[in-house]
Specification:
The chain has 344 residues and is mainly α. Helices cover 81% and strands 0% of the residues.
């Protein structure tokens, strides 16, 4: 009995060590990827047409070459690009993303002010898309070929084919302009937000409905189709027939065998969507005037505020890498048979 326990303990320690090594290797790869993203983003943005010094000089009513050169030196964009990159890499190790050209404020402060709004929007849309998509996919797979299956497939294809900004505009016209049920722009009404309490919470929830639906319906359609296909494929496998032959209830078969294995492709798609959500949030935040970093990136691009734009790209890339790391960990928790190479 003691030898058996020792073998189980050694096996458990080995599995834990493999898990730690896999996560450590994934973190190292993520760090290298993030460094490559920083370098590439910095170089591409710096090489983009447009001079922020000229824009600032025009805003201040002057375009004298000496004045422009002084502004360029003040902004730190007068030296060779490799020196600018080196100084920037040194600064961001201290979380110093520079100063906004337009607002003359630390970039990190501006981004952190806008970040909660984007997280609220994207996380809500992400959860909505997964829960609704997997639920609809399971409903369709339960009776393939039925009217419910056809309806779910039709709705999924329709929302997948529609441009996201067009969905948002239609929602605004129907639910805000025609029916007057929901607000069409902003995150909260200032007069209601100042009161606080449940009134402010209800106003925030009302402002969230249309942006969350606009951003989430597209990804919901993908999850519905992926989960439906995975459930139909797994339901015909031998281990499912064996579980049913053992007399397990339909609920246990669905929960412990069907759904658990069907979640793997859903997690893969969800991890890939983490980056797409940021791109989608730029459109949605612009359409609904949502005060997040997506709208901030759009405004920064228009005003050539490079420091803010680069910071948004870097932090967004960091979020995508974290999402993929979480997906790798989830693979092992759902199915421990996945080896280390498959998760890294």
């Amino acid at each position: 009995m003691s030898r058996s326990s020792d073998r189980i303990g050694v096996h458990g320690q080995g599995a834990a060590l493999d898990f730690v090594q896999a996560v450590s290797l994934r973190l190292a790869k993520a760090a290298i990827t993030l460094l490559a993203v920083i370098v590439l983003t910095f170089v591409l943005v710096r090489l983009a047409p447009g001079d922020p010094a000229l824009l600032l000089a025009g805003d201040q009513g002057g375009s004298d070459p000496a004045f422009v050169a002084e502004i360029r030196q003040h902004l730190g964009v007068d030296g060779p690009i490799h020196l600018q990159l080196w100084h920037y890499l040194q600064a961001i190790t201290k979380l110093d993303f520079g100063t906004s050209y337009r607002d003359q404020r630390p970039v990190i402060d501006i981004v952190l002010e806008r970040l909660p709004a984007t997280l609220l929007l994207t996380v809500s849309a992400f959860v909505f898309s997964i829960v609704t998509g997997v639920g609809l996919g399971a409903l369709a797979a339960h009776r393939p070929g039925s009217a419910i299956d056809s309806a779910v497939t039709t709705v999924s294809v329709a929302f997948f084919a529609m441009p996201m900004f067009w969905i948002g505009l239609v929602f605004i016209i129907v639910f805000a302009v025609k029916l007057g049920w929901l607000p069409s722009y902003g995150m909260q009404a200032p007069s209601v937000a100042a009161k606080g309490g449940w009134a402010a919470f209800g106003d925030l929830a009302a402002h969230m409905v249309l942006p969350v639906l606009t951003l989430g319906l597209y990804y919901m359609s993908i999850h519905a189709r992926v989960s439906r296909a995975a459930l139909l494929q797994i339901s015909d496998m031998d281990f499912i027939r064996t579980a049913r032959a053992k007399g397990l209830s339909a609920w246990l078969v669905w929960r412990d065998h069907l759904l658990r294995n069907a979640l793997l492709p859903t997690i893969t798609v969800a991890a890939l969507q983490a980056g797409q959500l940021i791109g989608g949030s730029i459109l949605v935040e612009t359409v609904f005037a949502w005060p997040g970093i997506g709208r901030l990136a759009f405004d920064s691009l228009a005003s050539r505020d490079y420091n803010v734009l680069i910071a948004v790209f870097i932090l967004s890339s960091f979020g995508v890498l974290i999402a993929n790391l979480v997906a790798d960990v989830a693979y092992r928790l759902i199915d421990p048979r996945i080896d280390r190479e498959a998760t890294t």
